[in-house]
Amino acid sequence: MFRIGYGEDAHALAANRPLLIAGIRIVNSPMGVVAHSDGDVLLHALSDALLSAFALGDIGSYFPPSNPAYKNMDSQAILEHVLKLTDEKLSRLVNVAAVVTLDEVKLSPYRTDMQKKLATLLALPPDSVGITFKTSEGLAAGHIQARVVVLLSMR
Ligand code: C5P
Ligand code: MG
């Protein structure tokens, strides 16, 4: 039986902070995320998408932002934890489709690295990981947003 999952995440941006997307450091961005964790919106949206496919709540259910233990937490560790939580029910992840909305800087030069990174984390071929970039056309400058859908089959 197939399931879809959907997740999204957004963070404010500020100067002199790191910007991580799908575990890839965006080195030429003058802005980075204001976040309790490492602020990787794509990994957070992906983790929520996987949890949602099985109605397992969201990452805040497992890593409450109010708990100081999770400050600056590595989002790859969050995703790994989510994969363990879903392992019993997940037969096969079919594909991942992600959209990242950011006005500045251009992310397309980083797409291949992000696809490879997510493919490695999810044990998928890179051509099963679609990543789309959009600007907000200035309507939401100063923030970054990720939206992710997953298709998978259940055990
Ligand atoms: O949002 P808009 O349609 O103007 O984006 C045009 C193109 O610019 C996108 O299709 C994408 O290829 C690229 N883009 C990007 N990095 C962003 C936003 C958009 O590479 N941060
Ligand atoms: Mg457009």
3D architecture notes:
With 155 residues, the protein is α+β, with helices and mostly antiparallel strands. 26% of the residues lie in helices and 34% in strands. It has four helices and seven strands. The chain has a five-stranded mixed sheet. A two-stranded antiparallel ribbon has the order 2-3. Helix 4 (111-122) links the parallel strand 5 and strand 6 (129-134). The protein is globular and about 45 Å long. Bound molecules: cytidine-5'-monophosphate and magnesium ion (MG). Residues 102, 106-108, 133-135 line the site of cytidine-5'-monophosphate.
List keywords for this structure.
single chain; binds cytidine-5'-monophosphate; 155 residues; five-stranded mixed beta sheet; two-stranded antiparallel ribbon; alpha+beta; binds magnesium ion
